[in-house]
Design brief:
This protein is an alpha+beta fold. It has one domain: Chitinase A, domain 3 (Roll), CATH 3.10.50. The protein contains two helices and seven strands. It has helices at residues 2-44, 110-115; strands spanning 50-51, 59-64, 77-86, 92-95, 102-104, 124-129, 152-162. Strands 1, 2, 3, 4, 5, 6 and 7 form a seven-stranded antiparallel β-sheet that branches. 19% of the residues are buried.
């Protein structure tokens, strides 16, 4: 009985290792795919950009740096207007009009958490976010129709910053 249990544990351990390697390989492949998708989109549309860092993969274009100096923490409340598109598609998938929603910075997607602090109140930024800094492999179908693994293009105007 003990030998059977040991064999069972070894089989489970080996299958877990294979899954972990497979997950890591899929994650790294998605990073490469996202990078190519975003760079090709930027070049094809002649968009001058900067990159947050070499390891993050979030690209940005500051359109207006803003007029009121702002500081940010994860509990900072931001009020924004934005449009969102799936790269490379031209269709808007989400947009604010006259109503400008407020979010706690720590509760938004990671691409916004690293990009929005690059501008001040009344600023405007365009963020090109790889899937791992947006919604990852999970499709967003409840209120948005975003397939898993999508890179996103956000044009964000920052109306208010409250600490």
């Amino acid at each position: 009985m003990n030998k059977l249990f040991v064999v069972f544990v070894l089989v489970l351990a080996c299958s877990a290792c294979a899954k972990t390697n497979s997950d890591t390989e899929a994650y790294l492949a998605q990073i490469g795919k996202d990078s190519v998708t975003i760079r090709n989109f930027l070049v094809a549309n002649n968009i001058p950009i900067k990159k947050v860092s070499d390891t993050i993969g979030v690209y940005y274009q500051i359109i207006d740096s803003g007029t009121v100096a702002s500081s940010y923490t994860s509990s900072t409340l931001i009020t924004v207007g934005y449009t969102a598109k799936i790269i490379p598609k031209p269709e808007i998938i989400s947009k604010t009009d006259t109503i400008h929603p407020s979010y706690t910075l720590g509760n938004v997607i990671r691409g916004w958490r690293v990009g929005i602090p690059l501008i001040n109140k009344y600023g405007r930024i365009r963020l090109f976010v790889p899937s791992r800094y947006a919604y990852g492999p999970v499709s967003q179908t409840s209120n948005l129709m975003i397939p898993g693994g999508s890179c996103l293009d956000f044009d964000i105007r920052l109306y208010n910053v409250t600490n």
